[in-house]
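Subject: for your reference before the review

Hello V.,

The reviewers asked for a structural picture of the protein, and I figured it would be easier to keep everything in one thread rather than splitting it across files. Below is the amino acid sequence we used in the manuscript, unchanged from the supplementary table.
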Amino acid sequence: MNTPGLPTPLMVLGTSSGAGKSLMSAALCRLLRRRGETPVPFKGQNMSNNAWVDESGGEMAYSQALQAWAAGLKPQCSMNPVLLKPQGDSTSEVIHLGKSVGKASAETYYEQWFRPGWSVIRQGIKELQSSYAHGRLVLEGAGSPVEVNLQHRDLTNLRLAKFLRARCLLVTDIERGGVFAQIIGTLALLKPVERRLIRGLLINRFRGRRELFDEGRRWLEAETGIPVIGVMPWLEELFPPEDSLDLLQRSGTKAGAEIEIAVLKLPSISNFSDLDPLETEPTVQLRWIEPGDFLGQPAAVVIPGSKQTMNDLSYLHRSGLGLQVQTFAKGGGHVFGICGGMQMLGCSLVDPLALEGSTSPNATNHQAGLNLLPIHTVFKQDKSLRQRQVISQWPDTAKLIGFELHHGISEPINDGDRLMQAIADDTSMGWVGKNANLGNVAGTYLHGIFDNGPWRRLWLNTLRQSRQLPPLPIDHPHHGEQKEQLLDRLADAFEQHVDIGPLLEDS
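And here is what came back from the structure prediction:
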């Protein structure tokens, strides 16, 4: 199905997971936008705990939000109608058009959720085509399109490509090695009607002079009959990671770094894009802490969000990392928790409905927190899902823009020995402990808090003051401006090294 009068959809497929589909889709969106088109990103089904909340309060994958920004559009959950959020034990929370509709196991997912998933995928397409009358869908596939044991129940690769008669680009990552086998093997497993949809091949993450691949390009074109439309170079840029595994690849040392911030890489870490703005600070070095790592004496410890707060809290207790954080805070260290990270900093957490990885409904499911903030958290059935704009009260006054995405409701505990201050004019957004013996332990429910340039600098300056470093200027733009510049540089490289003509030609 391709609606008459609308531009033919384009689709980015990959020879494997991690081939670079998400970023190449974003680059394609930005390039089409430059050419005067209205590109509309779409990924039928994504699996990620790195989420965004749109203006309607709907959940979607962050990668589709990034592609929307590349296209010059506001993210909306119909761009990612099926989102699976892994929560351990081979189960995932199922999000349809922004709303949670249940949980699914890997064994029964396609039996129970295939038909509803395909229905909401078609609905998402219909909504986008209605909203953008002359828009061109830019589709992103998932994993490999030729997993033979899964093809009959694939929701978001070839089924969608055939349904929309999309012109497809096949991307492979040369950094992994074996690109010839990956391309030839992928094409060999396609049916003739599917193979005809592949209009171009793209070699991604090439190091060195592109001329060195000329022989390989000629061989591929002769062997497949499909043009190699580009060889994308390895880009020394810090692009938003889609998978938490990518975080540990960010281990380079900054020459100008003056302070180190330790970030706990929780087993069920979520919304790790919250940390991207800190990565971009030239004076900040992030160090991701894994099991067995020694915390040391960083300028601050950040505990990010979690999809399974109770289980990750148990992990902190078992691994000894929790004790290290407690000792660090009691020695005057700065600790900051985001969403689930803030909940872990509290005195106690209760999950009566077994929503956050607890074992059974109706059990007590009570767990002691790190006891660094006098708050108590109870997990409720309904999520808080909304974009927010508030004014900070700590460390100073600044505008804060972000979103809420959480089950838990946290309340301060009356504790005469420990004082607390709300970090924003909406007191439910988080708190900072002000006990002289505890240092500054703070937390917030506001995802994207570090995106706010002035507030981020205010917070960093509290760390710098503790290290007797001069303050940074606080007149700093929102991280969205840096993302725009990053997307422009990505599109510049894409435009230089990729010829999208074969994707646009009728044939």
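For the response letter, the relevant points are probably these. Residues 308 and 356 are 5 Å apart (CA to CA). The longest strand covers residues 375-391.

Happy to draft the paragraph if you're swamped.

O.
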